[in-house]
Write a structure and sequence with these properties.
heterodimer; A: 382 residues; 4-stranded antiparallel beta sheet; 10 helices; B: 503 residues; alpha/beta; 61% helix; rod-shaped
């Protein structure tokens, strides 16, 4: 009896405490920018679609998951009882999903080595670089701004405008202290492999490729850090160990190679990651792969290439995958800004804000509003 | 009480002394005394000057008795290599006694003209007896015999001296110029009874016993804490009780011996030990034992911490070994029963297997550290899981206690609010439950709080409110990695999602 009488009093007291503490406002569920936990790596069967659905927010419809899709904390994964799906977490281990609704089984934030260099949802640090479509001078495409494991790399460059058969390119490899290590003239081609007969590059050393033709030089690209550094022997060993771990997951070959490309990207082996992903692209057309190529090109300052891949990504991402669309639009906006195409950049940014708003991800929406203000400012100054 | 009987009877002195007779008489009279056991007569005959130091050093006497001749000019006569007289310098002898005073309380110079020498001792020795003039051998013996007889019957020095003089009077001997008693400033001849043991000596005799029994008690306690896993508890407790009792008796007797050294009980217990405080070996050995035991005993908390950490290693390694973790925690609390963290850990590892034991351990953890919030939380959870109204009330009371301590850590606050919501929900106080759960969720601005969402889904459903599906969504989607989500809540929330949510 006494308890019944006390109950309303106690309730009133608690309400008073709540209000006085200013905690009366119950904040809606928000996602932090580090809340990506893992990646969907395998869905079986692949057809018909919808074996695994992902509900990215309470107020949005579930979308059909595709392989490579990133999963945030707070997403609801709904696996069809007849299907099988595997998630790879930041620790590099896979988890099988149980049938029915569930959260992402990974418990810690993902790592770039598994979830890609854009994994945290923030804008990648794309830098300004030359417009490879313009062809004002030869542009070294690979290796640039990268670590490198292969001590006999493939060297690629973009041709100069109006290049005809017979255009000669002079390829020079500089070592530390800008000492010429090796050079070769190439007629008509835009790639070559550092030859076997030459002494291999040295672990831990930094190099730079310069391509010249008709008095034009790749050195006209003034963006910083255009060289590349060969992995040290220890780094190479650690990488090999992690590669072996990925192989031991016993996933199909395409998925394994995709994960290894991811591993390369996470270790700044951008040139090799790009090479691997471009080979994979012939068989795997998922937005995760094209999006990662966009991220890699943006990272090494080849914005035109990055934009191409991001646009392809938007083309293959289902319209209701708001997270996928939003993340790509955000990155594309950055790349357009780097290329000085501000209208397009602003348009993409607005689309991204729309997507994250629908998802209810206030943290990223706030971030994007700041980006929008900054972009507006930059455009005014130009 | 050791009497060193020094005698010198030089051949070149006309009057020969009957020293053997004096020794025999004194010895006989002491044997008649009630305190005979406290006297030991050690004769050193034909003493030469060179023997003095060695005799004092070797015997460490309490009483020095000199029987021989003194020179009228002062100073005693000892013997040389040929047995002839050799006068010992008065000042030199006084100096020797001041250096080797040790336990000496009384010096009796039973020789003619001993008074001069006695005066030289008076500054160093408590009581000195000397002769003013020449005294006959027979009279001197009579005096000495009766003096020691009185001491052996427990008389004070003054009483013994007066009785000895009285005996001379009774025999018709003029004592006007005879023996004199000199008392050092600060000493009291009326109250000093040499037959009674001194406080220091008696207490000293009990010291090894005292140290030994404390050492044994401590050692048994230490062994019990380290080894009692597997030992029959009752046997260990009996042994320990006996040693503790011994130690208490030892302390009591030692205190008694300090207050009343001549107490009959003390004397009886001391028995044959004879208050030999000079034998320091047992004291040193027992002292070392006690120091070692004390050091180990003081380090028990360090050992306890080691076992607690070991338990955590077993518990949190990649493949946890809960059995070894539990044993390590048990060892930690045995070593340090007031170790709240170890009680908490022990409770946590046996929560699923033995919830009742686990609850006891949580209560101990709270008793020893009332700020160990997780213990309140976990204990409250166990109460709630018991599923009775009384238990819900207990849980609520515990959580309120923890809340009153105003924890600052956000995770603790979350956990408390969530469990307060849970307990209120169990008691059907739905409005209260909702408030607490929403407050818990508000604390999880970085996401998470699956358990609070799961519970809120129930609470909203019971109240017929909207939003059940949303809470089910958060419960299921945020559950992985959150250890406080009960399996039943999760499956209910999954069902709720499958059905399209709630109401």
């Amino acid at each position: 009896m006494a308890n019944t009488l006390l109950q309303p009093l106690r309730l009133a007291l608690v309400i008073l405490i709540f209000v006085s503490c200013g905690i009366g406002v119950v904040i809606a569920q928000s996602h932090d920018t580090d809340s990506i936990l893992g990646r969907v790596i395998l869905i079986e069967p692949k057809q018909p679609k919808g074996a695994l659905k992902v509900k990215q927010g309470k107020r949005v419809d579930p979308v059909n998951a595709v392989e490579g899709m990133l999963v945030r904390r707070g997403y609801l994964l709904i696996l069809n009882p007849t299907a099988r799906a595997t998630i790879i977490c930041g620790d590099g281990y896979k988890r099988e999903l149980a049938p029915g609704p569930q959260g992402c089984p990974c418990t810690k934030s993902c790592t770039p080595e598994v979830c890609g260099i854009r994994y945290d949802g923030s804008t990648i640090s794309g830098t300004r670089g030359p417009d490879t479509d313009a062809g004002l001078f030869p542009v070294v495409i690979s290796p640039r701004k990268s670590m490198l494991r292969n001590l006999r790399p493939t060297i690629r460059w973009a041709p100069i405008a109006g290049a005809k058969d017979g255009t000669t390119y002079s390829v020079i490899l500089f070592g530390e202290g800008m000492k010429v290590i090796w050079s070769r003239n190439v007629v008509s081609g835009t790639w070559l492999i550092y030859p076997d007969k030459e002494p291999s590059l040295t672990n831990g050393q930094t190099y730079k490729v310069v391509v010249t033709s008709n008095g034009l030089s790749s050195e006209q690209d003034h963006s910083p850090g255009l060289g590349f550094t060969a992995l040290t022997a220890d780094q190479a060993r650690a990488l090999a160990d992690d590669e072996t771990k990925r192989k031991q997951l016993k996933l199909p070959e395409t998925q394994t190679r995709f994960l290894i490309a991811n591993l390369y990207a996470g270790r700044e082996l951008y040139a090799e990651a790009i090479e691997q992903l471009q080979e994979l692209h012939t068989t795997m057309k998922e937005p995760a792969l094209t999006g990662m190529l966009g991220d890699l090109y943006a990272t090494i300052g080849l914005n035109r290439e990055a934009a191409k891949w991001y646009l392809e990504t938007l083309g293959v991402t289902p319209a209701d995958d708001l997270e996928g669309m939003g993340a790509t639009q955000k990155s594309l906006a950055q790349v357009y800004e780097n290329l000085g195409i501000y209208d397009k950049a602003m348009a993409q940014l607005k689309e991204a804000i729309k997507a994250y708003r629908r998802l209810g991800n206030r943290a990223i929406v706030r971030l994007l509003f700041n980006e929008e203000r900054r972009l507006e400012e930059t455009r005014r100054r130009q | 009480m050791k009497i060193l009987f020094l005698a010198a009877n030089p051949v070149d002195v006309v009057s020969r002394l009957r020293i053997d007779e004096e020794i025999r008489e004194i010895s006989q009279k002491i044997r008649l005394g009630t305190h005979r056991d406290h006297f030991e007569l050690v004769p050193e005959l034909a003493v030469r000057a060179g023997d003095l130091q060695a005799a004092l050093l070797r015997h460490q006497p309490d009483i020095v008795h000199f029987s021989g001749h003194c020179s009228p000019s002062g100073g005693i006569m000892l013997e040389d290599e040929n047995g002839n007289r050799k006068l010992v310098d008065r000042e030199a002898l006084a100096k020797l006694f001041s250096i080797l005073k040790g336990n000496i309380r009384l010096v009796v110079l039973n020789a003619c003209y001993g008074n001069e020498q006695a005066e030289a001792f008076a500054n160093t020795i408590d009581f000195t007896i000397g002769m003013n003039t020449a005294i006959k051998d027979k009279d001197a013996t009579l005096f000495a015999v009766h003096f020691y007889q009185s001491l052996a019957f427990g008389c004070s020095v003054k009483e013994a001296f007066d009785l000895a003089l009285n005996q001379l009077n009774l025999e018709g001997i003029d004592v006007a110029q005879g023996p004199v008693l000199l008392v050092r400033d600060g000493a009291n001849a009326e109250r000093s009874r040499l037959a009674e043991p001194s406080r220091g000596a008696v207490a000293g005799a009990f010291l090894p016993w005292l140290l030994g029994s404390i050492t044994l008690s401590l050692t048994t306690d230490i062994l019990r804490r380290f080894l009692s896993d597997g030992w029959p508890d009752i046997a260990v407790n009996i042994v320990l009780s006996v040693f503790v009792l011994l130690a208490i008796v030892a302390v009591a007797i030692t205190i008694l011996s300090l207050i009343r050294p001549a107490n009959a009980l003390v004397m009886k217990v001391a028995g044959s030990r004879g208050f030999n405080a000079r034998n320091q070996r047992p004291v040193i050995l027992m002292g070392i034992g006690l120091v070692i035991a004390l050091v180990v005993w003081f380090y028990l908390p360090t050992f306890a911490r080691y076992y607690n950490e070991r338990g955590a290693e077993f518990q949190y390694r990649e493949e946890p070994d809960m059995s070894r973790a539990r044993k390590s925690y048990e060892q930690a609390v045995r070593l340090m029963p007031s170790y709240a963290q170890a009680h908490y850990n022990l409770a946590a590892v046996q929560e699923d297997l033995w919830p009742e034991k686990s609850m006891e351990e949580y209560l101990l953890a709270i008793r020893y550290d009332d700020h160990i919030y997780p213990a309140y939380n976990n204990l409250a959870r166990l109460y709630i899981l018991k599923g009775r109204n009384d238990d819900y009330e207990s849980a609520l009371s515990l959580l309120r206690q923890a809340e009153d301590l105003a924890p600052q850590d956000e995770n603790v606050q979350y956990s408390l609010d969530k469990n307060l919501g849970w307990a209120n929900y169990a008691l059907r106080h739905y409005a209260m439950a909702e408030l607490y759960l929403r407050r818990a969720i508000a604390l999880r601005t970085e996401g998470g709080g699956a358990a609070a969402h799961c519970l809120l889904a129930y609470v909203l459903k019971e109240q017929g409110k909207a939003g059940v599906a949303d809470e089910c969504f958060d419960c299921v989607s945020l559950a992985p990695g959150e250890k406080d989500v009960e399996a039943g809540w999760l499956s209910d929330a999954q069902e709720c999602l499958k059905k399209g949510g709630g109401k």
